[in-house]
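Notes from the 1:1 (GR / supervisor)

We went over the backlog. Supervisor wanted to see one worked example end to end before approving the batch request, so GR pasted a single chain during the call. The sequence is below; no edits were made to it. Supervisor asked that the structure be written out right there so they could see what the output format looks like.
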Amino acid sequence: MNTRIHELAKTDLPGEEEVPMPPNPGDPGPEQPEPPSPDPTQDPRIPPQGDFPRGV
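Structure output shown during the call:
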């Protein structure tokens, strides 16, 4: 019985119930996103394959 009341109580509270732990000095933590990998489709230096003729 208590499990159902506990679930309702958790959903009633607005916001995040889980408090994030402080980041460790040696651990980058999930708050720092990884640097985006170079994507050739989103690189402004490389034109899309439809901009230049292929039959050269």
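Supervisor's comment: The first helix runs from residue 2 to 12.
Batch request approved.
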